[in-house]
Amino acid sequence: MTIPCTVFGEEGKLLHFSHANGYPPCSYSIFLKQFTPKYQVIAPWLRPLWSEDAPQTVSDWRVFGDDLLSFLNQGEDQITWPSPGGSKVLGVGHSVGATATLLAALRHPELFRALVLIEPILFLPRINILWKIVTMLGLSYHVHPLIRGALKRRRHFLNKEAMYENYRSKAVFRRISDRGLREYVNALARDDARGGVTLAYPPAWEARIYATAGLYDHQIWRFAPKLKLPVLLIRGAETDAFGGQVAQRLLARLPRAELRTIPKTGHLAPLEAPESVFQVISHFLHVVDV
């Protein structure tokens, strides 16, 4: 199947963006449109938005790195490769999208100019081992709070405005502007055959992605030192996902990495402070001349 994508801009160097679990590409429109004067942004959809397979077919996150590579190799019908500069892309990702970008670059670094990894999801080795045991015992769906939350998520609303009002009251979105939250709602809501709107991103898929996090991280830690690309790591100062120990370990393992922290943001930093995140990335791209 051809992997669908969302495109921002019509010319310039290629910026490949991989989105987070539950946040379709248009959720990031405020953030991504800032790049369009210099970059054509291509944002393929993660498989929860297009796959007909059951979520349980995913056993770890390698599949998302594989999907990313498949997208880059699926032809020129969706991508206009710029010239000069060849087919290398700037790989940017958020959350699971950042991890997928890193996985793809570890397999085929020749496809990338540089990487920007915003709040990548990785487990420390000891946590990785513990989570594998939990998974083997069949307990992951019982103990992971994000899984329980995803499966209980409200799926139907009278209209987009009702969905927006409901989300506006949620603590997880408290740092996102009204405009940014409306972009997210517009990206996530789709018409329901019963009337009203429902979620374009299936909760069962969202839960499965949480359940399979970390199950391949041992290979990321093993091969990260071999990646010679320039890498920018970005974390939110108040994140509950990309903790300081993980960030420092990844920084130490990647030969050409640097780490920047965005004040007053959490795991959703590119949605909470799109301008600040863009400025940090722009400075990095200028320094490494990408």
Task: Provide a descriptive summary of the structure in words.
Helix content is 40%, strand content 17%. With 290 residues, the protein is an alpha/beta fold. It is built from 13 helices and 10 strands. Helix 6 runs antiparallel to helix 9. The strands form 2 sheets. The protein has a 7-stranded mixed sheet with strand order 1-3-2-4-5-9-10, with helices on both faces. A 3-stranded antiparallel sheet has the order 6-8-7. The longest helix is centred in the C-terminal third of the chain and has 15 residues. It has a single domain, classed as 3-Layer(aba) Sandwich (Rossmann fold).
User: How much helical structure, as a percent, in the residues?
Assistant: 25-40%
Whole-number tally of structural domains:
1
Spatial strand order of the main sheet: 1-3-2-4-5-9-10
Strand count: 10
CATH superfamily membership, which one? Alpha/Beta hydrolase fold, catalytic domain
The CATH architecture name reads 3-Layer(aba) Sandwich
Q: Can you describe this structure in just a few lines?
A:
Helix content is 40%, strand content 17%. With 290 residues, the protein is α/β, with parallel strands linked by helices.
Keywords:
single chain; about 290 residues; alpha/beta; Rossmann fold; 7-stranded mixed β-sheet; 3-stranded antiparallel β-sheet; 10 strands; about 40% helix; globular
